[in-house]
Design goal:
Chains A, B, C, D: It comes from Kocuria subflava. 4 copies of one chain form a homotetramer. Chain A is an alpha+beta fold. Chain A folds into 2 domains: 115 residues, Roll (2,3-Dihydroxybiphenyl 1,2-Dioxygenase, domain 1), CATH 3.10.180.10; 165 residues, 2,3-Dihydroxybiphenyl 1,2-Dioxygenase, domain 1, CATH 3.10.180. The first copy, chain A, contains 7 helices and 19 strands. In chain A, a hairpin with a 6-residue loop joins strand 15 and strand 16. Chains in contact: A-B, A-C, A-D, B-C, B-D, C-D. At the A-C interface, helix 4 of A face helix 4 of C.
Chain lengths: 374, 374, 374, 374
Amino acid sequence: MTGNTAPHQSHNTIPTPTVAPPDILRCAYMELVVTDLARSRDFYVNVLDLVVTEEDDHAVYLRSMEEFIHHNLVLRQGEQAAVAAFSYRVRSPEELDRAVEFYQELGCRVERRTEGFTKGIGYSVRVQDPLGFPYEFFYDVQHVDRLAWRYDLYTPGSLVRLDHFNQVTPDVPKAVKYMEDLGFRVTEDIQDEAGTTYAAWMRRKPTVHDTAMTGGDGPRMHHVAFATHEKHKILAICDKLGALRMSDRIERGPGRHGVSNAFYLDLRDPDGHRVEIYTQDYYTWDPDNPVVTWDVRDNQRRDWWGNPVVPSWYTEASTVLNLDGNPFPLVSRTDDSEMEVTIGADGSSYTRPEEGQDSMPEWKQGEYKLGHQL
Amino acid sequence: MTGNTAPHQSHNTIPTPTVAPPDILRCAYMELVVTDLARSRDFYVNVLDLVVTEEDDHAVYLRSMEEFIHHNLVLRQGEQAAVAAFSYRVRSPEELDRAVEFYQELGCRVERRTEGFTKGIGYSVRVQDPLGFPYEFFYDVQHVDRLAWRYDLYTPGSLVRLDHFNQVTPDVPKAVKYMEDLGFRVTEDIQDEAGTTYAAWMRRKPTVHDTAMTGGDGPRMHHVAFATHEKHKILAICDKLGALRMSDRIERGPGRHGVSNAFYLDLRDPDGHRVEIYTQDYYTWDPDNPVVTWDVRDNQRRDWWGNPVVPSWYTEASTVLNLDGNPFPLVSRTDDSEMEVTIGADGSSYTRPEEGQDSMPEWKQGEYKLGHQL
Amino acid sequence: MTGNTAPHQSHNTIPTPTVAPPDILRCAYMELVVTDLARSRDFYVNVLDLVVTEEDDHAVYLRSMEEFIHHNLVLRQGEQAAVAAFSYRVRSPEELDRAVEFYQELGCRVERRTEGFTKGIGYSVRVQDPLGFPYEFFYDVQHVDRLAWRYDLYTPGSLVRLDHFNQVTPDVPKAVKYMEDLGFRVTEDIQDEAGTTYAAWMRRKPTVHDTAMTGGDGPRMHHVAFATHEKHKILAICDKLGALRMSDRIERGPGRHGVSNAFYLDLRDPDGHRVEIYTQDYYTWDPDNPVVTWDVRDNQRRDWWGNPVVPSWYTEASTVLNLDGNPFPLVSRTDDSEMEVTIGADGSSYTRPEEGQDSMPEWKQGEYKLGHQL
Amino acid sequence: MTGNTAPHQSHNTIPTPTVAPPDILRCAYMELVVTDLARSRDFYVNVLDLVVTEEDDHAVYLRSMEEFIHHNLVLRQGEQAAVAAFSYRVRSPEELDRAVEFYQELGCRVERRTEGFTKGIGYSVRVQDPLGFPYEFFYDVQHVDRLAWRYDLYTPGSLVRLDHFNQVTPDVPKAVKYMEDLGFRVTEDIQDEAGTTYAAWMRRKPTVHDTAMTGGDGPRMHHVAFATHEKHKILAICDKLGALRMSDRIERGPGRHGVSNAFYLDLRDPDGHRVEIYTQDYYTWDPDNPVVTWDVRDNQRRDWWGNPVVPSWYTEASTVLNLDGNPFPLVSRTDDSEMEVTIGADGSSYTRPEEGQDSMPEWKQGEYKLGHQL
């Protein structure tokens, strides 16, 4: 299950630029377009307890408790729910020149803005990347109070850090190769015996990922994830959603991921944007950090406890915008679908590899075999 | 949602004996018949970490970490998986005479055994109760070490106390009335607007229940439940089951119950006997403790987070034995089925009462509406 | 260490009344006199997050999250910090007649008030008990919302239940004998080989205690204790006190008690009243529940981790009032002092009995042997 | 309290080499000399539950649950308790040449060993650094199973990662300047108004530290720290030590550090080597990560809850060996002592700066002012 190999390669490869990629520190923030700013603000501020750094009639800038930069999430009022930017922080202003060169060599559209694209951020570079995603890079940012010690402000479910993004793209090996060129490293992936790659997790900071590539029609945004300190904080968010009669915001979990070993909960915001709450993956910074490859038919890969993944989790994701603010057209996945091979009509999974499909929980056959029934 | 009323009464009532019932302290142990003693021992001892007080070729006597009586669970080798006894401890030996009189007046078969029916227990009374369940009462018991302070023996998922039984019976109001005559008090129940009662929770000790009556074909045993100290211990049991590639033992949860407010996990043992792990309900000892009545269509009644109940949880339960050790014949439920009214073809549930079925999580429609598909 | 014996008897015994004692359910609330109502309200409401049921210019009525009666704590403005009542709930109104008879036979002053002594409570009986404590008994009470399911209102350190009182009295065996006459049972105590009893824990509800008797000059109130759901909630209270720069409110802990096996934290309110936060003791309702007797020289009896008890914890306690509202005069303890025999100049303790004083942590000698230095 | 400045500079500076320092990934393991290998093995394996990778008559090689390299701790039998190596992993074998050049330019003794100094490690470089510490650098290492998913092996207090070292050295600014030359960055420090630096925390990996420099007679090893997943795991270690009647191994805590914001516990192993258990500090990888400077008189800097630091914690530390295996001679600290300025006869601390010494907890005056009494 463990090795040092990246996912199988695609036949449809993005060329490696001759210039070095920018030195990326970490995923830093996401810009979400929401259709009802007040309603979304209520969800992120009053339900999920993110901290408002700044707001106006058009946008709300939010951060987590341990963050010292201006924001980890921007909610911007718009007509159609979408993602306007996946933003990464780089090590220095000079790295932005590298970003420009890197993407220009790839033939991508590149926009530079000295004053930044959002409040609190300085000189920034936005690109439409080869997969169609709106990526942003910046270094200059307004510092704000790191609230780590402000235990008078913590709530039972406080979010402390932006942890990662998750992107939907049709050709995962193609995406991985491009991201490795951009300086990311694979930590875990899901494959099958025939060599199809279904998803891959990639990091810059020494956690399991800064972003993951999930196979599906894309480009789309699968989720944005925030970290908590302990597992009980994730349970507290569920309890609070129940008390607010908002339990229908819970799409999947809570549970333990197989991939990443983290404890998770997947929510849907008022526009359907998926937000993951996440805690306790592991250190990955050594160059020879063992890559973990999961068999797509291993029923514990997505949920270590074998609880079924709901179909919407596989099929629904957020539109991403191009640099003009219009939806980027989708490209369909042609490789096998993880949902179809595991829970579809011809799908199969196992709890114990040696027993195959017979080792699937009998009490959940209905849920796992939904494909038969839809 | 809160009042002081018991469930609606049945038309088919068991008469109230003229004698006082025995003064019952608490549910004390269950005797399970298992078909492969070694396999079941492995599950309860090596997976769930119950403590072996004593064992021989035919039976294993197990207790939880804070228990000081000989056992909370007996595994006895037999040909057919079943439940041989639901055993309660009474306040004194004299209470056993009251038990005899109480059940004799009800016309029930009563067996007295000076040396007890299981090791470690003294003079005991077993009855086939009016609902068909094999109930036992005892006072004399061998004391063993309470391991509460033995933190060198605790494991990440240690079970500290037997918490409750859960019984399946066709006519819940009938069962409740009889149990109230036996000295139990209702703490919570599930009803609908038409007056059907689907389940009721009843206590002697000051927790939410010592046993619950769940509507269905009966008599059958729905589950036996052990308590942990904190929620993370229940998550640790799930994690361990994953590591042992036994995640298919997880039938439902973990989650937060609406009823009882406790955090729970439902497992199936190697014979399919259901074992619940449970923590953090509330104090109920005041005579005017508010009874909580849940609407059967409230999607948060069984799981506060709105996660669906798998059909097997409603339909499967363990056979119970009569005093000769033979399976007790089933009586079918004629009242509405909770599964049918909530997830069946004509079923409906809500997250927010004012929005009705529209407030159900769209991403889980498939799971909730399985009735359409089976 | 475990047996079924009560503490050694005193030579100075309060006679057992010929009438039966009232059937007490549980400790229900304490009435505290505070010298600055606004300041105390801030501590209990904004720091400890108790819920205000009702308040006026003279008093604040507070309850915990799982309570359904009007209050668990009354803060009443007064000139001198003190305790006006230790209040217990009885099983029915009729039990109040028993209380009157019980205390009248003991020659105690008894006050009856149909409308109750505090808001929200009906007919009540207050007595000056034989030890000098102002005890109250009531049944009628205004019901309020049990907030158990209101997870939108929980905070990281929410208190869910009043757990127990702790009283200081000079002659512990005398106090225990009287409390046993009142229907309480001893669950644990601290003794020495010579037969001196230093403290005893006594229950009505099936936890380790509803009140404890701590040896010292009395009558005084040692502490009032509230329960949380899990240990991390107690740590969250510490963290919050740090963030508020109120860490000097922490007198002792957090830690694990030896006695009771509970996790604890002892705070001092703005008037110096001691408030304990407490979680996870064990079930004690069986009549033959093993009594645990601890050796006074066992260094883990008060703190299972061997952390030293600060001298103030032994020496400071709150004044109690007589039924006229005046301080009750103190009687000095003549038996040995727990502090002197353990940390005083001639004191000794052990971590491992077989090694005696040599098994005390070398790094804490200074703290343990403060008696040499004061 | 927050800025971007390093500690004040020393007048006694180690020159900055002209060559680049090795690219260090993280603290990787410590080699401890212990006087009774069986006794130390019992402490680390049976009490702290570290995993034995390999062992022989002379040494035991231990790792934590999430580690994939051969070991995080070596226990080696010897005549005098000491520390033989603080070992760091570098990014590639080539970095070892940089290490050699770096230290040779500093005039330090450098030892290269192709086969490594301990089992499981390949080509390694050991140096006697300018402060007198035996530092090791390596890249090649035997991979072993990362047990992160092996929840069947976890115990209530499982250690998952080596987190940091802590070193005692007389001149903290001198040490910091040298460590910055070696590529470390300061994240937090303790200073006073007069410009004395008492301690500094420095990182390579993006946590608060890989090592800290604590002012005192040195070179000595203050502690080695392992991380757990959650705070309850640290409490479980305390509980287990109590059950094993080894509570005297607890020197300080558990508590919340002010510096680092982590939850901690400090133990002493059978030879007196200090082992810290640690969880939940924060992400520090951004180049402009705010440095937190604490006032030495802030009573919450070392323990956020204001609990006193025992004198032994300031005064006792482990001997370190030179490359010949002999104790390195101590150099005395000439700057002010943190213990003296805070708890000594003329010391002072505050809970609230504006109130000064008056804001210290009255109930702990004895403990804080031990200096008066010793």
